[in-house]
Amino acid sequence: MTTATLLIVDDEKSTRDGLRMALEESFDCYVAADIKEAMGLLKSEPIDLMLTDLRLAGDNGMDLLDQSLALPHPPVAIMMTAYGSVDTAVEAMRRGAWNFVTKPLNLDEVELLLKRALRSRSLEKDKTRLEREVQNLRVKSGSSKHGLESLIGQSPAMQQIGDLVTQIAPTRATVLIEGESGTGKELVAHAIHQLSGRPADKLLVINCAALSPQLLESELFGHEKGAFTGASQKRIGRFEQANGGTIFLDEIGEIDQTTQVKLLRVLGERTIERVGSNTSVKVDVRVITATNKNLRDLVEKGEFREDLYFRLNVVRVLMPTLRARTEDIILLSQAFLREFSLENKKEIKPLTDEALSLLRSYTWPGNVRELRTAMEHGVVMSNDPVIDTQHLPYFLSVPDADAQRNDPQSTPQTSQIEEKRENSLASEGEFNLHVLEMRTIQRALQETHDNRTDAARLLGISRRTLQRKLKEL
């Protein structure tokens, strides 16, 4: 991974050199004594971060801030001064500084601040790319709220889903969407409908698992007055209501045999009969179904009609799990953070490196839906300038017990800690973070053969910080 570049600007050589020596393990450091030298480096080198003093041998660091931010690729700027005041800090932030620190400097705090600034820059780039991706999809497809822009992802798996949706949407083909819970099956159904050319407001969604067999039959096909106890008047079913549009049947594997027969007729003859009626009603409805079960297995068990399975499975869309497309986690996280920040009227905050590492290492059994919930939790729980590990749901920090038992690198100490976790729920928040840090550091030391400098670089922290954490743990 490319090391981030940092420009340190201070007219005192001892300060420049001291900061460079303290930070060069984490950053590729450049130094400058004045505005002219600093601007020369900024124009010739790809500088990511700039840490600059406010007073520069007669020059004003604010002028350097203004000039640097006017460049085509400006650095993220942090101002430092021994003459700090609230007014000066506000002015620096107003003119574009990312943050402001006062001398004497705490080097650990400066290093952490620089890494957070770098994380902010990375997230901003991802946000820009995400917005550009969404805009391109809108232009390409003419889609609206539930079109392709809802299928966030730059992974090959999601690109294939997007291409498939674009190809099949304008057709009349029946679509079967399979995948684990939380992978976005309903979003795909919405996208297919929005791109189909059928009326945008004519998509009806039915969760087949939420209704009893009798109620589901009546809901789908309608009923005549007196068809059964409680049928006090005629009811138009969802297929008739969706005429000219699309019906999405979620959890299709849950329907009973009677409803399966009726659905088979709809697909074959494009007609329905209300419960209690012998009159056929013609309908023009696009059918999309979804399931988190394996319908082929249900057919072999005799629980699902084979002829209906073939009717439904004209085009199959298999949704990838989130653990199969981890490269999309940052894009999804950013989208959800923006959504819930706006919803809760809170400032949009970046995720720290540690929080992102935690998100990437988790297996996400609940897939995108679980990630979305975790981001809402982070937005609600964070009163800090960032969203860190302690703001995320506690279960993200707990190693999976089965994976732990099968992990050849798991140590007796770690097993004892897991046992202690089960018997000490009162301190689980603090303890979970302790376990996570310990396991992460153990892995880094094992991978670098106990070379602490290399381990610190692998973890993205300074060697001094690693030494401190080892003492604490």
What's the helix and strand layout?
Blueprint: E1 5-9, H1 13-23, E2 28-32, H2 35-44, E3 49-53, E4 55-56, E5 59-60, H3 61-69, E6 76-81, H4 86-94, E7 99-102, H5 107-141, H6 156-168, E8 175-178, H7 185-194, E9 203-207, H8 213-221, H9 238-241, E10 246-250, H10 257-269, E11 271-273, E12 280-282, E13 286-291, H11 295-300, H12 306-312, E14 315-318, H13 329-343, H14 353-361, H15 367-381, H16 401-406, H17 412-422, H18 428-447, H19 452-459, H20 463-472
Parallel strand pairs: 1-2, 1-3, 3-6, 6-7, 8-13, 8-14, 9-10, 10-13
Antiparallel strand pairs: 4-5, 11-12
Helix pairs in contact: 2-3, 5-13, 10-12, 13-15, 17-18, 18-19, 19-20
Descriptive terms for the model:
473 residues; alpha/beta; Rossmann fold; Helicase, Ruva Protein, domain 3; five-stranded parallel beta sheet
CATH class bucket of the largest domain: Alpha Beta
Task: State Rg.
Answer: 29 Å
> What class would the helix/strand composition place it in?
alpha/beta
The name of the CATH architecture of the largest domain is 3-Layer(aba) Sandwich
What's the pLDDT, averaged over the residues? 82
Low-confidence stretches: 134-146, 401-432
Number of domains: 3
Largest beta-sheet details: 5 strands, parallel
Describe the strand arrangement of the main beta sheet, using strand numbers.
2-1-3-6-7
- Give a count of the beta strands, DSSP E runs of length 2 or more: 14
Task: Identify the overall geometry.
Answer: elongated
What fold name stands as the CATH topology of the largest domain?
Rossmann fold
CATH superfamily membership of the largest domain? P-loop containing nucleotide triphosphate hydrolases
Approximate helicity band: 40-55%
Distinct helical segment count: 20
Distance between the termini: 28 Å
**Share of β-strand residues:** 5-15%
